[in-house]
Amino acid sequence: MTGIEELCLERFFLGPGSEGPIGSVCVSDEDLVELFRKSDLEQAQAALVTSLPRRTLLRDYLSGELSPPTSSGKPDYLRILILVCWMQTSVKMRQRGERDFRLMLERHLNDRYQGAILRGLNPMWEHLAAYLLRDHGIELRLPEVKPHSQIGRTLRIAFPTWRDKAAMRKLRQVMDHEDLLNPLLVSNRIRTSRRIIADRSMQSFEYNFDLFDRARRFGGREYMETPFWNAWYGIVAEQAALEALEIAEGEFGEFEMFRVSPLGKKVRITGPDDAIKFVPGQIARSIKIGDVPLEPVGLSRFVSTDNDGSRIRLLHRSKLARAGNVTGSRSVDSDWVLARLEVSADGKDQAASGAKDFGWHGGIRIGGAYLGRPPLAPVFSSQGLLPPRIEINGREVATQSGPSGWSVLGGPFRGTAVAFAGKERRETLLVPTANEIDPRRRRAFDEALEISEDEYYHDTVPALGSDMEDWPGERHHACEDMITLGEALYARSVRGLSVGEAYDIASKALSAGLNDAPSGWDALRLFVDSGWFDSVLLRSFPARRLLQREITAERIGNRIIRIGGPTPIAVVERLEAVCARIGAELEVSHGPSRWSLPRYLIKTRDAAQQQIFLRRIELGNPSSAKLASIHPGDRSGVYGYDPIGRLDEAGGYFAFEFADKPSEGLYRLAKGDDHRNPYLYRSLVPGLAPTNYVSPALAIMAHFSRSKQSLFRIDGEVIVGTRNRIHLPASWARWLSDRTATNPGLELGIGSWRYIYPATAGTVSSLRRLVSIVDSEISATPWITRYLASPANRGRSVFDAKNRNVRTAGVVRGTR
């Protein structure tokens, strides 16, 4: 068997056959594109035809002049069977009203087959059925031959053919419009109308309907992946506009818009007007008037809704200017903004869909309790009754009203929280810390499923060795917001956590009435660079996840043990307990600002006490790292990819850009509309070969480096990026943290935050081998330094052409 034959056998027969007898062969357009690894259907169809035997040999196969292999041989004709099944079911390549089998074959093969004898098809199916049963124990149930003696089986085994679609159109006509995508009602109608919908000769229809019905009965959304439901949705969508408008937040806070089908398929659009023809009438009218109600669906995503009372709106800028009840807004593009409306005067939420049942809601689950750290503690909804009285361990606590309900203030809390509203009471259990996670439950990074956001710098270090250097800078205890966020992320990430959901948690944790808190994106980056998480990109979908890293203990000489990985309060308490038991010392190494995380070192008397500690604590050793070297990036082509965004160098995010011929800059590329491939980031610099990256963070750093721009500068005892969103690869940041025993942090300047890496002369020397790091005093233009030093110019910014960065006066270290 050839490679294509083996892929066909596995995809269309061995895979489905592992779940039971096969009664149908479903070859979709998407299957063909994936099978031949092409960027579009036309190329895949051409590749399939090219892979077939030459013309005379193919005619002999189809006519029966050339028989299949002997009974003991493997099939070598699967490409032919896949072609004849696919050409009957193709959505894009099949011409409307085309039903003659031989004419379809003639059009695809560019050869004359009208009136041709096709006696070879039935022997192929029979030989394949015998082979599958004998060699793999799989039953292939072949349809009856009659009334089409030569092609009857081939007509009936493919799905969905025009006969199946005609039956589904009859079903669509007898069902109410609002019931068309209700799987239970569709199933009931087919079961009670079988003689009207399909005759008993439609074996593949019945087989695929049974697969769908079993998946529906199992619960969940697996039924949406079945061939029957995909075919049914295609029939429904011919006349019904059932898609939704989705607004999703991108890698660095920018927004993207999609049309989303009920099957979950997304199509990128440039604006809401592009979705008018595909969404229900009420939503289409909302788009036309510039006021679209939205509802949150998690992962920093919002979907259009017909609930006109929703507090979250997509507003046209002309509407925003006249709206008087907007509490906050963010730009989606030049014409639209995402806005949040205020609560009505009577205290009731305007969004009826967001109304909560009477009781406790939200929060971070910790076993049978919830994290008792506001603002991530659960809130109480009293359904418009009198303000509740909330007691924790019998003592009344202060509360605050918000859009979701009443939240407690202060904390952290441990104990039973009881809310009284009228004659009703509801209680829940609060705990101040996350539970330490069993290492066996932790989902580790898998290179077969994910791509590290460090890409080819994953697990590399600027210099080998484990020596430590003393960092002389000023240290600060971590603020309570960082501790709260760490406990929440640790509790939620044992099996992995989407970056969108993590950002939602971070934004909520940092929004407790503070106007000077950093962004959620920068806070998450701190946890990644501090060794708590691996940031990865899915190989099969353009999405990002956080995976919890292993907690490790590494010996440094005979008297120090360096702790790595996530260190929530429960882990620190266990470290303290072991140290107290054996007489060792736990040293806390604080970060360069309040917005950073501490490192932990174990100080022992000698090597023997080190061994006792390691034996008791039972932590793993860190994985070995490779010496980093500058990587040139991927220089291959990007056939099939289209530009959808261009880096806004000033803002540090990818703005919409649908250019036919991209010019200079860093572009984000997507492949087609199926959204099953990760994005590519293509750097175009005059005089250099175009280079591709998968990681957006690495692409930004590499693009500025290729443009001969400085990436980082030394500012006292810290390294600072010279542009928005420029960061060291996380593996290098963790190496830097190991060497200095100090995690990176965030510090507030005049109106902006900057990301700082504590560094020493030795670590800077190693990093300069890989990235450009300039010294502030050497690179600065003298008159700009004098200008910014004047108190009268505090807060002003000047572009320094010498090192190509923007310098701002009055950066204050260690403040909020």
Fold and architecture overview:
The chain is α+β, with helices and mostly antiparallel strands and 816 residues long. It is 31% helix and 22% strand. Strand 37 (745-748) and strand 38 form a beta hairpin. The longest helix has 16 residues, at 121-136.
Descriptive tags:
816 residues; alpha+beta; six-stranded mixed sheet; globular; disordered C terminus
By DSSP (H or I, 4+ residues per run), the number of helices equals: 25
Query: For the report, how would you describe the main beta sheet?
Result: 8 strands, antiparallel
What distance lies between the first and last C-alpha atoms, to the nearest angstrom? 67 Å
How would you describe the shape? globular
Strand share of the residues?
A: 15-25%
Give the rounded overall mean pLDDT.
83
Query: Total strand count, please?
Result: 41
Give the C-alpha Rg: 31 Å
- Helical coverage, percent range: 25-40%
- Sheet with most strands: strand arrangement: 3-2-1-5-4-6-8-7
Structural class: alpha+beta
Low-confidence stretches: 344-355, 810-816
What's the topology here?
Layout: H1 3-17, H2 29-36, H3 41-51, H4 55-63, H5 78-89, H6 101-109, H7 121-136, H8 152-157, H9 162-174, H10 183-192, H11 194-197, H12 203-217, H13 227-236, E1 244-249, E2 255-260, E3 266-269, H14 281-289, E4 291-296, E5 301-304, E6 312-316, H15 317-322, E7 326-331, E8 336-341, E9 359-361, E10 365-366, E11 369-371, E12 379-381, E13 389-392, E14 395-396, E15 399-402, E16 405-408, E17 415-421, E18 424-431, E19 450-452, E20 460-461, H16 480-492, E21 497-498, H17 499-509, H18 520-529, E22 533-538, E23 544-548, E24 552-556, E25 560-564, H19 569-582, E26 585-589, E27 595-596, E28 599-603, H20 607-617, E29 626-627, E30 641-648, E31 653-656, E32 665-671, E33 680-684, E34 691-693, H21 696-706, E35 712-715, E36 718-721, H22 730-740, E37 745-748, E38 753-758, H23 761-767, E39 773-775, H24 776-779, H25 782-789, E40 797-800, E41 805-808
Parallel strand pairs: 11-18, 20-29, 35-39
Antiparallel strand pairs: 1-2, 1-5, 2-3, 4-5, 4-6, 6-8, 7-8, 9-12, 10-11, 13-14, 13-17, 15-16, 17-18, 19-22, 21-23, 22-23, 24-25, 25-28, 26-28, 27-37, 30-31, 30-32, 32-33, 33-34, 35-36, 36-38, 37-38, 40-41
Helix pairs in contact: 2-3, 9-13, 16-17, 17-18, 19-20
